[in-house]
Amino acid sequence: MAIQIDRQEEETEMRRSKRQRSEQKGPMQDVYNDDTATSSMNRTLRYYSRREIALHNTEGSAWIVAGDDVYDVTEYMHQHPAGKAPILKRTGGAVDCTQDLMFHSKRGQSMWREKCLIGRVTNNERLNGRPVEKPWWAFWDLQC
Ligand code: HEM
């Protein structure tokens, strides 16, 4: 019992110091503690697998990927100065939008991050940003 309580305290302490480290690093370098991180806009960021990102390739739910970052542009695309068409062509993580991101003004680039950033790509299997429990016999299916 005592050991269990110690472990809990240890874990809480680890989380606290990780959070402090991420605060020190500042909002542009989000540190992903365990499963999540907090964006500069105080939004919770998660890891998403390529398989999950690929499901968001419609006007109803449109995600784009630039480098390792995942952006939900579903709402923003309707107010995008160049319209929604160029965004819709790149949804579902089919294209790496790093070049597109760089093309934007500094203000545009921070809008990507502030309005749309939802997390980061991972190679681990995930659904709704959470790890997926796999049956023991599927251990070899590591990639999407
Ligand atoms: C991969 C997806 C995207 C593509 C291909 C794209 C493309 C473009 C293009 C071609 C323009 C120029 C419009 C013009 O001059 O008439 C533009 C402007 C702009 N876009 Fe995007 N865009 C994308 C995603 C986004 C996102 C996610 C945001 C913000 C959340 C955004 C914000 C803006 C803003 C603010 C402008 C005005 C010019 C500037 O500040 O750079 N765009 N975009």
From TrEMBL:
Signal peptide (UniProt feature, chain positions): none
GO molecular function, one term: heme binding
Keywords: Heme, Iron, Metal-binding
Record flagged with keyword ATP-binding: no
Cellular component annotations (GO), alphabetically ordered: membrane
Domain Cytochrome b5 heme-binding as annotated: residue spans: 45-122
InterPro entries: Cyt_B5-like_heme/steroid-bd, Cytochrome_b5
Domain of life: Eukaryota
Record SMART domains: Cyt-b5 (SM01117)
Region (Disordered): 1-36
Coiled coil: none
Record's protein name: Cytochrome b5-like heme/steroid binding domain containing protein
Taxonomic source organism: Nitzschia inconspicua
